[in-house]
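thread: overnight batch results

M.L. [08:02]
morning all. the overnight job finished for the chain we discussed friday. pasting input first so we're all looking at the same thing
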Amino acid sequence: MNPPTPEVGRTPHLALIGGRGCGKSSVTIHLAEQYPDFRRLDLDALIVAAAGGRPVAQIVAEEGWPGFRDLEYSVLKAATDTSESAFVDCGGGIVVDLGSEGREIYSERKAEILRSRCRVVYLRCNSDLLAARIQDDPNRPTLSSRKSFHALMESRENWYARTAHRVIAADALSADELAAEIARWFFEDDPGE
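M.L. [08:03]
and the structure it wrote out:
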């Protein structure tokens, strides 16, 4: 099934944002299977490639979260600087930068790229569900030594919503259901909705 060509004035990219474990990867995989004219961009995989193959945990261990966030910004900017349509699977911290004291702050620079180059969907999930989904994944580095995962997700909630053009409650929906709802919105609905 080929999607309609995005209308003039619409971005060719769709970006999914949200906390770790919300379903961004599964949904972009489903969308890419249904719409083969669109590339699937996994930002974490692109970051790993840009870092010479070092896994995310190693990048963070060697360069700290500020170094990782700078690399994430560069990769996002380069990956979306094209008219070739893409489904963009963003990491959970795409809306985050680090302030002078090492605390998470809203990333105006990444949000600006996302909002201007992509139509952005926030897959909102309860933090207990997210924590349960990711608890046994050794490939995810610890996000903070100061705050719990739940506290971080609570502080990021506003940032995800502020960045998104559309928010979807994703807790009870399968990847197929989410992909179908997102595709309807992206390809058929008015871009202002």
